[in-house]
């Protein structure tokens, strides 16, 4: 039974390696954007590839970073009337890119880099140990 499970795990790991190799081959035309995305803390090879798959390398269609954040549904609403704040729920958007970017942000939050001092608002609950 254990040998069968071990063989199944090995087969799945080989399949994942094949998928990763295919993904990296598919990123060859976008090598410059792929390598540039990896310079951002928290973004590795796979995350950079998934971001390029979802967003593409042409940012002109969004016009501004704020519009990309709205498209990914990462910017909360700001509905206020008569001094009372109404629902600020984040609307539905592209779930795949939202998940990828949130995972990358969590990974960046855990790295020991200069990012906490550049963006202190992201690190209110996390202080890296010295």
Automatic annotation (TrEMBL):
Signal peptide: none annotated. It holds the Pfam family Transposase_20. One of its GO terms (biological process) is DNA transposition. It comes from the Bacteria. GO terms for molecular function: DNA binding; transposase activity. Residues 35-112 form the Transposase IS116/IS110/IS902 C-terminal domain. InterPro entries: Transpos_IS110 (IPR047650), Transposase_20 (IPR003346). This is Transposase.
């Amino acid at each position: 039974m254990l040998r069968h499970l071990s063989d199944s795990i090995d087969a799945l790991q080989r399949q994942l390696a094949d998928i990763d190799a295919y993904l990296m081959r598919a990123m060859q035309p976008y090598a410059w954007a792929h390598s540039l995305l990896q310079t951002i803390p928290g973004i590795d090879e796979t995350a950079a590839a998934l971001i390029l798959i979802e967003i593409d390398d042409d940012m002109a269609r969004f016009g501004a970073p704020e519009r990309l954040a709205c498209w990914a549904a990462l910017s909360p609403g700001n509905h206020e009337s008569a001094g009372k704040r109404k629902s600020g729920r984040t609307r539905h958007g592209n779930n795949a890119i939202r998940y990828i970017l949130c995972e990358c942000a969590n990974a960046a939050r855990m790295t020991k880099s200069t990012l906490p001092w550049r963006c202190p608002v992201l690190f209110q609950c996390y202080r890296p140990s010295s």
